[in-house]
Amino acid sequence: MIVSLVEDYPNYMIINLDKLDYCASLKNLETISNKHNYKFIQGDICDSHFVKLLFETEKIDIVLHFAAQTHVDLSFVRAFEFTYVNVYGTHVLVSAAHEARVEKFIYVSTDEVYGGSLDKEFDESSPKQPTNPYASSKAAAECFVQSYWEQYKFPVVITRSSNVYGPHQYPEKVIPKFISLLQHNRKCCIHGTGLQTRNFLYATDVVEAFLTVLKKGKPGEIYNIGTNFEMSVLQLAKELIQLIKETNSESEMENWVDYVDDRPTNDMRYPMKSEKIHGLGWRPKVPWKEGIKKTIEWYRENFHNWKNAEKALEPFPVQPPFV
């Protein structure tokens, strides 16, 4: 998102506020780090004094709020941390943005706030029924953001997107994790049966969706950013094995799969309707075959953008209780 804004909108000054947590890497931004319209500031959205000072010293017109703890597996064992960062941090940021009279505040949420569904498609008015600590923290944060519209008519917009994949994603997430495991001659670890399905959107398509919401999204509204492309985790593993290990043999493919204990809860599907954002002129464009090919190539060259990338490939112990 930052690279696109900096390169395509030279008249915009883009300020990148990032804590530089374990999953961040400034190497992902090397192509634009010296541009005149880009500025990096290291800081934490949970630091209310710092955030207030930032809005006082920088002329900020628009906020795109991506900052969050997002790894579902981790949320089961660090639930309080997810609540603190995702709920309290969001409240700090939206409060400071409101005080600074920001023109538009876009909160990046997730399809997971709806909970799972086998058949019913969710639209923006569907109830929030999150089933894991990550999704619960995002749903709670949405309530705080929405309250600033209800109470003050502060121009907030909420987006809920399907799973995003592509270059620059820390390899703890399923697609870069499977790619990197296979490229390091290690097995794909699959939770439970692997029959749970996910909808995957390529990163540049999601960037276009955010730009659409930035320009045309109406204050106080929620927009689903979804795709009809859906694949089970097991099928994903098999496709990646075919592409990286160059085999079509079922028995050979099974050699590259390792089934591990399932998460305490693992929603089977997140089917969403996206007609509302289609009405603003956005639809996904990048076909799966093209997107996954680019992604595989990128990780072959850039896996070590993160100093701790190897750690992301370790199997994660997911056990209750939520602490």
TrEMBL record:
Any single Pfam family the record assigns to this protein: GDP_Man_Dehyd
Keywords for the protein's UniProt record, in alphabetical order: Lyase, NAD
Residue intervals of the NAD(P)-binding domain: 7-295
InterPro entries recorded: dTDP_Gluc_deHydtase (IPR005888), NAD(P)-bd_dom (IPR016040), NAD(P)-bd_dom_sf (IPR036291)
Requisite cofactors: NAD(+)
Record keyword Lyase present: yes
Protein name per the record: dTDP-D-glucose 4,6-dehydratase isoform X3
UniProt source species: Bos indicus (Zebu)
Lineage per the UniProt record: Eukaryota, Metazoa, Chordata, Craniata, Vertebrata
Gene of this entry: TGDS
